[in-house]
Input
Amino acid sequence: MDDPLHLVRLSRLMDVTAGRAEVVIGLIDGPLATDHPDLAIRSIRHAGQAAVCGAGSASCVHGTFVAGILSARRRTAAPAICPECTLLVRPIFADVQPGVNVTPTATSQELASAIVDCLRGGARILNVSATITHAYGDGARKLVDALDLAAQKGAIVVAAAGNQGVIGSSAITRHRGVIPVASYSRAGRPLSGSNLGASIARRGLGAPGDAVESLVPGGGTLRSGGTSAAAPFVAGAAALIWSEFPAAEGVYIRSALAATARGGGGVVPPLMDAWSAYQAIQAMKGGR
Output
């Protein structure tokens, strides 16, 4: 199966809609190369002042890559799942060593602030592709409070499970309001580098994380992967479904995504089936 969109049955849903501007996705990641010709720039805004991409910035590479999965223009090389949704960019991490599949890091307090900023900016979905360091003490409490606030507001928080290849959980992936995302190969099997665990399997989903092509600074594209690439497939699917059913509550979209996912078990989350989740909401709403 060559197209990662087909793996999670997103292509059929993308034929139905490109999203709606009222559905705001908070992108908690690196800054974007907003001069990339394939980005749907009119759908992108910033939470606060836009961060500038430095020359050779790995954080900018990472942020632009993830943004391309969600908000590239359709019929470009990137997945371009939800270009008509609003992408609210909230950079969170400092520069790291070059490489898209190096998961960026941030403190729990930095992530908490970014979550609150995105919620204030109207985000209904949050995409987090960062590893958290120093998740203890006051910072950890603030992170839990921010995730609790997102749950209270009915927002859907989608977070990369991490690429350390370990069995376990983190302050993010074990939170009841978060959908942790593991990376799957194009053959539909979990990748060896993806973090797995009981909480990831229980509340999480699998999505494409193998040789995904997306945008990078300088106007080009790159194939990379990992859970950072997998997370926006889930966030994008939720955004498309919410675009078609704007009155639906986030809990129903989460439930539909979980109930229709395929496989999994033990410490492995099931593989997302976006089209079946859409059909489940459609049936629940009586054909809209």
